[in-house]
Amino acid sequence: MQISSGRPLGAIEIYFLILKSKKVIKNNVHDSCKGCSIPLGTAIMKYFVYLLVSRKHGKLFSYVGITNDLKKRIILHNSSKGAKYTRGKKWYLAYKKSYNSKSKALKEEYRLKKDKKKREKIKLNFNLKNENFYSFTL
């Protein structure tokens, strides 16, 4: 199958054409939605860029990451099932920012990982706000 521009159709395009021909999809909305306002393929997923802080032997450590489920990710880090760097420490959320686009979130994560001054500022602010964090040790 080809469209008028002459290029071959992709698998998803063929799938939608089949569904439309069977009248399962009308105006890019699936019948099973029964009044859904979100057309197929346009659901928005939130992504979070986050900075975790930990203290071990009196020294502050930070970790920057990206996720679409922040609570689950922090639980994984604290249960030593997250990134290798985070294993064996108790982590606290010091900073988070949400994005509607994964690419924007990835760019911000990269910037935050490279910007040591901003990371230090966030760690310091977190440390000052959480006085009991000073006495925390593993």
Q: How many domains, as an integer? A: 2
- Our measurement of the CA-to-CA distance between the termini, rounded to an integer number of angstroms, reads 63 Å
- Category by helix and strand content: alpha+beta
Please state the CA-atom Rg, rounded to the nearest Å: 23 Å
User: Roughly what percent helix?
Assistant: 25-40%
Profile the largest sheet.
Answer: 3 strands, antiparallel
Q: N-to-C SSE series?
A: HEEEEHEHH
Tally of extended strands?
Answer: 5
Largest beta sheet: strand ordering:
4-3-5
Number of helices: 4
Q: Tell me the β content.
A: 15-25%
Report the average pLDDT across residues.
Answer: 79
Q: What shape does the CA trace take?
A: elongated
* Residue runs with pLDDT of under 50 for 5 or more positions: 134-138
Report on the architecture of this protein.
By secondary structure, the chain is an alpha+beta fold. It has 2 domains: 1-42, no CATH class; 47-133, no CATH class. It has helices at residues 11-21, 70-78, 102-114, 116-129; strands at 25-26, 29-30, 47-56, 59-67, 92-99. The strands form 2 sheets. A 3-stranded antiparallel sheet has the order 4-3-5.
